[in-house]
């Protein structure tokens, strides 16, 4: 049986004893090496989790919100959304006009490449108040003035035109503007569409 000294009276007592049989003082149990290792491991894990949570919140870029008429500088692209309107017609040209599945939402804007090399315009999306994402209508590709998916701009060149969406009218929409394919940044322009152009 292993023995140790009582710190109060100096008598030799068992390491398993909770109190000294001689003086009655309460004996503290020694913390073993294994206990310290386990405690150190848990502290290390907790610090790691807290650190990763704080880093992930720092790494996430803050979402930026704008309104129609504001200039949006994001990534290597600048945007200015001038106006938006609802329409049941795609074009005045009878050969290009098509019926919408819901309703056409036109967004008139200017896009400028602020980079030092040619860049393609990233696709536009609409986000409604519930977070649902809507893509631009594929029906508008041939309509004069529409900004298509494959449009490329040289440095400092801007393009004015519009993007057309085919979406329900009962939602509030924000236009999601991307900083570019390699940017990873986004900004949102709150739309206030009029009844028709």
What does this entry look like structurally?
The protein has a five-stranded mixed sheet, with no helix packed on it. A four-stranded antiparallel sheet has the order 4-5-6-11, with no helix packed on it. A two-stranded antiparallel ribbon has the order 1-2. The protein contains one helix and 13 strands, in the order ββαβββββββββββ. The longest helix is centred in the N-terminal third of the chain and has 27 residues, at 33-59. The radius of gyration is 33 Å and the shape is rod-shaped. By secondary structure, it is mainly beta. 14% of the residues lie in helices and 35% in strands. It has two domains: 3-59; 64-190, Immunoglobulin-like. The model has no long low-confidence stretch (mean pLDDT 84). Strand 12 (173-178) and strand 13 form a beta hairpin.
Helices and strands, with pairings:
Layout: E1 3-5, E2 12-14, H1 33-59, E3 64-67, E4 71-74, E5 77-87, E6 103-113, E7 119-120, E8 125-128, E9 133-135, E10 152-153, E11 158-167, E12 173-178, E13 186-190
Parallel strand pairs: 3-13
Antiparallel strand pairs: 1-2, 4-5, 5-6, 6-11, 7-10, 8-9, 8-12, 12-13
Helix content: 10-25%
Q: How big a fraction of the residues is strand? A: 25-35%
The domain tally reads: 2
CATH architectural grouping of the largest domain:
Sandwich
Major sheet, described briefly? 5 strands, mixed
Category from helices, strands and their pairing: mainly beta
Please trace the helix and strand order, writing H or E for each element. EEHEEEEEEEEEEE
CATH domain class of the largest domain: Mainly Beta
Here the CATH topology of the largest domain equals Immunoglobulin-like
Number of E-state strands: 13
Uncertain spans: none
How far apart lie the N and C ends?
Answer: 96 Å
Strands of the widest sheet, in order across it, are 3-13-12-8-9
**Average pLDDT reading:** 84
Please compute the radius of gyration using only Cα atoms: 33 Å
